[in-house]
Amino acid sequence: MTNPQDAAAVPAPSRIVVGVDGSALSRRALEWAVAEARLRSAAVHVITAWEYPAVVVGMEGTLDTREIEAGARHGLDATLLRVPHSDVEVTSEVVQGGAARILIDASARADLLVVGSRGHGGFVGLMLGSVSSQVVHHSMCTVVVVRGVSD
To answer: Where is the UspA domain (predicted)?
Structure first.
């Protein structure tokens, strides 16, 4: 018979959270996270965040949030198809809200958070994007920022 204390001593599998926004650097972040998950026998949880865009006066109600969310899901699925991961447990979700806040919240349930150094938006040429900067400073777990070859 197995001692219950022995079972408690076995650490739970690691959980790696990775933020994906459809950019090349976020795909590289996912590739890095999957490779790390193989080394750690960890699970990967992929998150894409989306926000309702700013509305110009007179355009209220013209955008369907279901279309925006569906577009975000399509982008996430397309990224997952480009990164081989059949040997790693991968889950994903699309969440409405600011990417930095969503990822910081998810870091409370992660052993590692992985993001690209910059994604869509922002200013080309910045070494660290606003989302990656925010998660580095506010996450509740270790953060890896994957840089591009031109950084």
So the answer is: 15-147
